[in-house]
Amino acid sequence: MDADDFELGADFAAERDAADPLAHLADRFYDPDDEWYVDGNSLGLLSADAEDALDRAVSEWKDLAIRGWTDADPPWFHYGERLGDRLAPLVGASEDEVVVANSTTVNIHTLVGTFYDRAEGTKIVVDDLDFPTDHYAVRAQLRQRGADPDEALTVVESRDGRTIEEDDVIDALDDDTALVFLPSVLYRSGQLLDVERITEAAHDRGILAGFDLAHSVGAVPHDLSRTGVDFAVWCSYKYLNAGPGAIAGLYVNEDHFGLRPALAGWWGHEKETQFEMNPTYTPAETAGAYQIGTIPILSSAPLAGSLEIFEAAGEATDSGATDAADASAAAAAGIEAVREKSLRLTAYLMFLVDERLPECEVGTPRDPERRGGHVAVEHPEAYRVGEALKERGVVADFRPPNVVRICPSPLYTGYEDVWEVVEQLKQVVENREYEEYETRGGGVT
C-alpha cells in the first residue's frame, strides 16, 4: 500500500480495521488496560492460546509426573522436534530441518562453532550494526579456536549508521572467508537484508551462510530450504509471542545433517538409543542434533499455543485446517497474511510520521522488500521522548543513539492503535514534554 492510499484522521483508521481479516485475532491476546502496546519486537503479548498451552503442560506434570515424557500430548520426549515441525512452515523449511532448543545465544555458539570448524577459510563476515550478543558469541568461538577476533572477524561497516548495503557484504567475501553470519533484520533500523542474494553470493565463493532471524521470524516469511541457507537461529519471545525467556529455535539445512555439533549434549543424541546411556555421543540425523540439555517444557509450552494463532491467521485467508498437513498449510498461509498486514501497518505508521511529526525522521527503509516489522522513529531526544510516551501509556522502546522503535505487531495491533500512538507522540514532541525527564541512565530500555 502506497502513502497515496492513506488518509489522515481516526475515521480512516477505523475503516481499515473494520476491513482487516486478521483483526479478530487481537481478541485472543491480553492487552494491558489503558495502554498502547507497540513493543512486540522486544516482547510479544500473552495470548489465551499460549496461556492454555502452559496450563496443559502444568496439568500434565501434575497428573502424569514423569510419565509426561511418554504420555503427554505431545510426549515431552519429542517436544522440541514437534514444535520444530510446526515452526518449519514459517521459515520455509522441511520439518527435520527445524527444532526448538536452547537460547538464541547458545544456538549461535553451537552453530557458528560447528560450521566454522568444517569451513575452509579462517574469517567470519559480520556487520557493525548487529545485535551485540551475536558478536560476543562469534568472538568467543574464534578465541576458542586460537584465532584473534580482531584479525579473523571481517566487520562490514554501515555507510549511513542505519543500514547495511548487500554490495558491501558481498565485497567483503574473499578467499579467506569461512562463513558469513548476519541478521535478517537489523534490530535498530528495521532494515530487512536480502537473505537469498547474500546466500547465493556466499555459495558462489564456497562460503557458508548463516542468519539470525530474531527480528523477522513470525513477522516475515522465509524460504530457507529453497534459498539454501546453511543455518539460522532465532528467539520466540518477539513476534512469536511465546513469553519472556521462551525457548529459542534453529534451522540446519539437510545437506549438513550428520555433522557433529561443536557443543554436544545428551538431548541432541539420536532418540532411538538416547536412554541406553552410551558414553559415546551419536548425534541425531536431523536439526535435533543441536539440542543440548533437556528441553524446558514450561518455557516451551507457550510456543505451542502461539503457533495456533498463526494457523488461525492462515485459516482466515485460506482453507480450514483439519489435519497435520492442513495445519502446516495454514501456518504457511498465516505468515504470508501476517506479513501483508505488517507491511500495511508500518507503511501507515511512516505516512503518519511524515505528515504529522516534522520534528522526527523515519530511519527505516521505505521499500517493502527492505523493511522488517518495526519502524525506527528518530529524534535527538529519543530516550526522553520514550520516557514521556510511557507516562502517556505508550509502550515502545529506545535504542541508542536516537531511535524510538515502534512495532505494530500485526496479530494484535490495528490501524487505530497506530493512529493513537502517533497522536500521543505528536503531543510529546510538539509540547516538548520530554524536557521534564532526565537524560538516560542505566536499566532496561
UniProtKB/TrEMBL annotation:
Residues 86-316 form the Aminotransferase class V domain. Belongs to the kynureninase family. It is an enzyme of class 3 (hydrolase). The lineage of its organism: Archaea, Methanobacteriati, Methanobacteriota, Stenosarchaea group, Halobacteria. Pathway: Amino-acid degradation; L-kynurenine degradation; L-alanine and anthranilate from L-kynurenine: step 1/1; Cofactor biosynthesis; NAD(+) biosynthesis; quinolinate from L-kynurenine: step 2/3. Its EC number is 3.7.1.3. Homodimer. The keyword Hydrolase applies. InterPro entries: Aminotrans_V_dom, Kynureninase, PyrdxlP-dep_Trfase, PyrdxlP-dep_Trfase_major, PyrdxlP-dep_Trfase_small. It comes from the Archaea. This is Kynureninase. One of its GO terms (molecular function) is kynureninase activity.
